[in-house]
Amino acid sequence: MGKGGNSKSSAPATNATAASSRALGPGEVWREDEGKSFKVQKSYVSKSALASIAKRTDLPAKITMAEAAKHNKRDDLWVIVDGKCYDVTRYVEHHPGGWLPMVNLGGKDATDAFANYHPARVYKNMLPQYYIGDVVDYRETEFQKGHRAIRQRLLAEGMFETRMSYYYKLTAWFAALLAGAVYCTLACTSFAAHMAGAVLLGAFWQQMAGVGHDIGHNGVTHVWKTDNTIGLLVGNFLTGIGMGWWKRSHNVHHVVCNSIENDPDIQHMPIFAVSPEIFGRFFSSYHQHWVETDAAARFLVSYQHWLFYPIMAFARFNLYAQAWLLLLSDEYVHNKKWEMVASAGFIAWLSSLVAYIPVGPWGNWERVLYLLVSHNVAGLLHVQICLSHFAMETYHGVPYKGEEDEWFRMQLATTLNIDCPAWLDWFHIGLQFQIEHHLWPRLPRHNLRYASKLVQEFCKEQGVNYHMPKWIDAQFDLVAHMKETAMKARDLKRGDAGFYESPIWEGLNAQG
Question: CA separation (Å) from 183 to 175, 240, 360?
C-alpha cells in the first residue's frame, strides 16, 4: 500500500525496494479503496452469474462490441469493463450516482469511467453478479494502455491517499473567513464594514465550493457515507448548494463532457450557447425536454459575450433553485429528507445574519446590497467553472465510439487547465487542474499538480493537445469564443419548424 500521497508534489522514491513493492503479479492491477491502493485481481466472475448465463436464452453465442452497443437504454443496459460485458439493467434504478451516467455509458467501453468512480470492492463484490460474457472483439489500444499506465502509476505511488493535514489547514482558513464575515456584519456598525463582511462571506462560499467539489467525488475521506455526511454540512447547510443536485448533474457532466445533447453544464439556453451546433432543436437527455432556439434565445445569445459576467454575478441564485427543484421532484435523491433539513438550515442562518445587520441610514436597502455583494463575489466560482469547458470542443451524442473519442482523448479535447504558480492554488480551489481532475475524479486535489506533469509528458509523446492558458488569457479566449457564437446567432433564420436554424443544423438533419 503506497504512502506517496503524503508527499506534496515530488515523485516518491524509486529505489529497488519501492520498485519491488509496486511490481504486479500475473493478472493483477492496482485499484483504490477508501483512498488506499491495493494490488488486486483484475476481474472476477461469479458462480451465480455463470449459472444464470446458462439459463438465459436471450444472449448471443458471442458478444461483440456491435452487439453490446444495441443495449444502451434505461430498460436494457449493458456495459463493458475490461473487455467483459455486464447486463446491469436491474441495477439502473438503484445506482447511487443516478441512472443518467449509466445510460450514457450503455453499450460502450466503460472501463475508464468505471475505474474512476468505483472502489476496488465493487469489482469483487457487486460487478461479477451482472457478468454475461467476454466481448470477443474487445481491443485495448496502445494509446489506452499508455494513459491507463499513468493511473496505475499514481495508484502504485499512493497518490490517491488524502493528506488530511491539507484539509485541516483549509478548515482553519474557512473558519477565519466565516468568522471575519460574521464579525464585520454583526459587530460593526459602519456601512463599509458591512460590505467587507459581504465580501468575506462571498469569498467563504467560493472557497468552500472547492471542498464541496472534492467531497462530492468522495475525494476527501474516500468513505462514501462519511463524505456524504460532510457534504450535507459543507454543501447544503453552509453554502446552500444541494449535494444531491450537484452529484446528479456533475456525474453526467464528467461522463459526457461537452456533449450538446447530454451534458447539462453546457445546456444554458435561452441565455448562453457555447457552440453554433446548439442552434436549432435538440433533446436534452438530462432535462428530458426539447431545447429550441426561439426568438428570445436568439436575442439573448446574440449578446451573450456582454451578458456573461453580469449573469455570473447572480448565477448562485439559480443553483439554489435547481437544488430545491430536484428535492421537491419525484427523482430519487440519497438522504433527500436530510438534504431538505440542511438546505432549510442554510436559509435560516443566512436570513438571520442579514436580518440582524445593524443597518444605518440605508435601512433594508443595505441588507439587499449585502446579499448582492456576497453573491457577486461568490460568482467568481461560476466564472472559474465556465472557463474550464465553454471554449473547448463540443460534439453530438455520446463518446466512446472508438479510439478517437475514448475517455482520455475526450477529456483532453473538452477541458482546459489554468497555468498558475503553486502559491495561487488556494485561489483556484483545484479547478486549475480540471484536465487531471476529469481524468481521475477521486484523485485528491493536493496531488493534481504532480499528476499534471505526468499527463503533459504523455500528451507530448502522443501528440495530444494539452491546453493550459494563463488565467487572463483564458478569460479573453472565452469571451472571444462566446462573441463568435453570438455573431452567428444573429444570422439565424426562422425555419419551417418554427425555431431558428443554422446551416449546421440543416446539414445535421439533411436539410438545405
Answer: 12, 21, 17
- Give the three-class secondary structure for 131: strand
Q: What is the pLDDT of residues 15-73, one digit of tens each?
A: 334 444 678 888 899 999 999 999 999 999 888 899 999 889 899 999 999 999 999 99
Distance CA 388, CA 257 (A): 11
Give the whole-angstrom CA distance, residue 250 versus residue 213. Answer: 9
Cα separations in angstroms, 147 against 75, 383, 454, 457: 33, 30, 10, 11
Tell me the C-alpha distance between 219 and 362, whole Å.
Answer: 45
Query: Cell numbers at residue 327, please?
Result: 428535492
Candidates 71, 294, 216; CA nearest to 208 is 216
What phi, psi does 78 have (nearest 5°)?
-115, 150
Identify any residues that bridge with 79 across adjacent strands, giving them in sequence order: 86
Distance of CA 337 to the CA centre of its chain: 24
Spatial CA neighbour of 301 closest among 483, 501, 503, 502? 483
Tell the burial category of 56 from Cβ atoms under 10 Å away from its Cβ (0-12, 13-18, 19+). exposed
Contacts of 34 (CB under 8 A, 6+ apart): 119, 221, 222, 223
Beta-carbon contacts of residue 110 (< 8 Å; ≥ 6 apart): 79, 80, 81, 400
Which runs of E-coded beta strand occur in 270-328? 281-284, 289-292
pLDDT tens for each residue of 78-126:
999 999 999 999 999 988 888 999 999 999 999 999 999 999 999 999 9
d(CA 172, CA 211): 13
* CA proximity to 455, closest of 467, 441, 466, 443: 466
Q: From CA 270, how far away is CA 291, in angstroms rounded?
A: 9
- Going by the DSSP 8-state scheme, the letter that residue 415 receives in this structure is -
Work out the number of other CB atoms within 10 angstroms of the CB of residue 295: 13
Phi, psi of 490, deg, nearest 5: -70, -20
DSSP string of 142-168, one letter each residue:
HHHHHHHHHHHHHHHTTTTS--HHHHH
Which grid coordinates are listed for 158? 499512493
Distance, CA of 200 to CA of 184 (rounded, Å) = 9
pTM tops 0.85, yes or no:
yes
Q: List the grid coordinates of 182.
A: 460574521
* CA-only gyration radius of the chain, Å: 24
Please state, in angstroms and rounded to a whole number, the distance separating the CA atoms of residues 211 and 174: 10
Residues 501, 493: Cα–Cα separation, whole Å: 6
